[in-house]
Specification:
Blueprint (H helix, E strand, L loop, with lengths): L2 H8 L3 E2 L4 E2 L6 E7 L2 E6 L9 H13 L6 E6 L12 H7 L2
């Protein structure tokens, strides 16, 4: 299992409000794969996001589906602050940025 495998799986986690995956939205700041353990550093579009529990559970559940993953740790951070600049180019265009 590689960082690429994890990111590919995380693209299946869709923001229910925007209908776009969390990787392309720029919510994933880092993925570290060490042995069979995965540590993910991610953020949300705002600190008060009512979907935080949904995202934490969805990210953990998605990563656990990758063959070989034994343990997943998701760290929710708000520094650096998320901005639309973190989105990939196609998403920016789709959302009018």
């Amino acid at each position: 299992m590689t960082k690429f495998d994890i990111l590919k799986q995380l693209k299946k986690v869709i923001d229910p409000e925007l209908g776009i995956n969390i990787v392309d939205l720029g919510l994933i700041y880092d993925v570290v794969v060490k042995e069979n353990n995965v540590k993910i550093k991610m953020t949300l579009t705002s600190m008060g996001c009512p979907m935080s529990a949904y995202f934490l559970d969805s990210v953990s559940d998605a990563v656990k589906k990758v063959k070989g993953v034994k343990k997943v740790k998701v760290d929710l951070v708000f520094e650096p602050v998320w901005t639309p600049d973190r989105m990939n180019k196609k998403v920016k265009e789709k959302l009018g940025f």
